[in-house]
Write a structure and sequence with these properties.
Blueprint lengths: L1 H25 L7 E13 H5 L4 H4 L10 E12 L4 E4 L22 H7 L9 E3 L5 H4 L3 E3 L6 E3 L5 E5 H8 L11 H9 L3 E4 L3 E4 L2 E6 L6 E8 L2 E5 L22 H18 L2 E3 L8 E7 L2 E8 L7
Length: 312
């Protein structure tokens, strides 16, 4: 009984601690914080896979496709300078498996060293990388081959790489649906270098960034809630891959647990609508950000806009 009471006391204390941090930082902008958008490349993806059971006649009015039914998707990463930390969210696909993945027609794959130099940073400056999950289009840029293509090196050698614990287990022992999306060379070198940190439950990475766990698209997906410019920005990852996927029933065929996806998306959108939070899309090639509004018992996009450039 004593052990159970101690557990309850610790649990309640953690709830009040997180609430205290949230009240302190949600009410005001972080003055020295800067966020840079990094387009890590684009690829083609089958529209039927993106929109699941939604008929093409419906979804193609909201998101364009070519004659082969392929839709253009982005790999939009964020670089967050809090003044104390330099945090990258996701790293795109990298260039290690481009030949193997040629079906997706990757274009404009970013060189992070050059991209960060243009912003006044280097890859060695990055302190933390938040990986929404470990499918190849989200974490492949964390490592690269040396000039001889014999050794795999860390792109961000000083960074702690944050991954959902259940996602890491799934990466090591994937289910049949997701096995082809995981490549050992993308993340095992990170673990071997001692730069992997697993997230077991919702937590704050720092006062400006909260990590929440979602389990529909894949188990242990991390969604970042970011306090910036007096607003809460949600880096929605594959919870809502593109803006037309906002309605609850628009669930991707890629999602391993579609009913869970629907339930979690409803929770996310309810809070976003009530608190006027902003959705930031990783994969939408045409819409970067939007607010949402309730429509009867469903949700839809309200205002859409590009992510703001940091004030110099």
């Amino acid at each position: 009984m004593e052990g159970f009471l101690n557990f309850i006391a610790t649990f309640v204390e953690s709830i009040f601690y997180n609430a205290k941090i949230r009240r302190k930082y949600e009410s005001k902008a972080t003055l020295n914080m800067k966020i840079h958008k990094i387009e890590a490349g684009f690829f083609d993806c089958d529209g039927g896979a993106i929109f699941g059971v939604v008929p093409k006649k419906v979804w193609q009015k909201r998101y364009p496709c070519n004659e082969e039914n392929f839709c253009k998707l982005a790999m939009r990463c964020l670089l967050i300078d809090t003044g104390e930390k330099l945090v990258l969210i996701d790293s795109g696909t990298g260039d290690k498996q481009l030949d193997y993945l040629k079906y997706y027609n990757f274009k404009g794959v970013v060189n992070f060293e050059l991209a960060l130099q243009q912003l006044g940073y280097s890859c060695g400056d990055v302190t933390d990388i938040i990986l929404t999950h470990l499918h190849f289009d989200h974490c492949g840029g964390c490592t690269y081959y040396d000039s001889d293509r014999k050794n795999v090196l860390l792109t961000f050698p000083n960074a702690v790489h944050w991954v959902g614990e259940r996602q890491w287990i799934n990466f090591l022992e994937p289910n049949v649906r997701e096995g082809d999306s995981y490549f050992p060379e993308n993340m095992l070198p990170v673990q071997q270098a001692g730069k992997l940190k697993l997230v077991k439950e919702n937590r704050f990475l720092c006062p400006e960034i909260e990590l929440r766990i979602f389990n529909g698209h894949t188990v242990g997906q991390l969604v970042s809630y970011i306090q910036y410019l007096g607003k809460t920005w949600i880096y929605v990852g594959d919870v809502i891959p593109v803006a037309p996927s906002i309605p609850l029933a628009w669930i991707s065929a890629f999602d391993a647990y579609p009913v869970t996806s629907l339930e979690e998306k409803k929770i996310l959108l309810q809070e976003a609508e009530e608190k006027h939070q902003i959705l930031l899309f990783e994969h939408d090639a045409y819409t970067e950000c939007c607010t949402v509004k309730k429509s009867n018992d469903n949700f839809r996009m309200d205002e859409s806009f590009p992510f703001p450039n940091p004030v110099k």
